[in-house]
Q: What sequence folds into this?
């Protein structure tokens, strides 16, 4: 006997597979099925390269120790992992995803993130992945949280079993965009912007957390979120962003 629901589901799956034309996440050009960017846009991809092992600040030459700023004022996270330098067409794709509200770009970009996410989870012995949350008002405006979506899609692409917790960390204060702010202004802007939901503290206590965001510039947002996690008893936080920008001065 045919199950009508399953037959319908299978037909829909097939139809969607036919309709789905793989496209470049930056320019909408045609691409091979598993490629996030077309050949032209892919030439602008820039691996992070030489960087501070603690804050991922791009450096001219490798240092055996952390950068000068991390030595003076170490961030609260153990390390920041960033596979790519922010800019080029990857930057364009991340901007489009957020500002033109194209959540489907999360899935298209996943192959650029998944192997690095899996390596970070393994290297840092991560127990749980926590995306940087948006304030509810911004979430309502945008309809999705890009950090959460990128984490979900990359986790799926990497076939990782590590759980994602999108409910325990909250952004309790709406913060204006960090764009155009100096490093000091960025820190002040996000101070006390995050908190762990009290009744969910036990889920995170003693755990090692990978805190995921799309882009980091000074790391101020990650630092503020890390402080909230640590004050709720999280054992350690490692930051992970898709792309690291050079520092704001
Ligand atoms: Zn392209
Ligand atoms: Zn540093």
A:
């Amino acid at each position: 006997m045919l199950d009508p629901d399953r037959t319908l589901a299978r037909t829909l799956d097939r139809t969607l597979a036919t309709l789905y034309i793989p496209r470049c996440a930056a320019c909408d050009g045609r691409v091979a099925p598993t490629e996030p960017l077309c050949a032209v846009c892919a030439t602008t991809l820039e691996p992070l390269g030489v960087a501070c092992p603690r804050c991922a600040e791009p450096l001219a030459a490798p240092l055996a120790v952390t950068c000068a700023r991390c030595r003076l004022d170490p961030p609260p996270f153990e390390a920041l992992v960033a596979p790519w330098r922010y800019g080029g067409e990857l930057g364009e794709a991340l901007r489009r995803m957020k500002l033109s509200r194209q959540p489907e770009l999360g899935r298209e970009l996943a192959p650029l993130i998944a192997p690095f996410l899996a390596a970070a989870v393994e290297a840092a012995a991560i127990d749980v992945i926590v995306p940087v949350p948006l304030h509810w008002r911004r979430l309502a405006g945008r309809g999705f949280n890009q950090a959460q979506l990128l984490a979900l899609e990359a986790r799926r692409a990497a076939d990782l079993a590590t759980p994602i917790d999108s409910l325990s960390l909250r952004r309790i204060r709406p913060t204006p965009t960090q764009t155009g702010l100096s490093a000091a202004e960025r820190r002040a802007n996000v101070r006390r912007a995050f908190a762990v939901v009290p009744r969910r503290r036990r889920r995170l206590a003693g755990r090692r957390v990978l805190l995921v965001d799309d882009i980091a510039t000074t790391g101020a947002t990650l630092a503020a979120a890390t402080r909230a996690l640590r004050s709720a008893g999280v054992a350690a936080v490692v930051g992970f962003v898709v792309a690291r920008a050079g520092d704001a001065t």
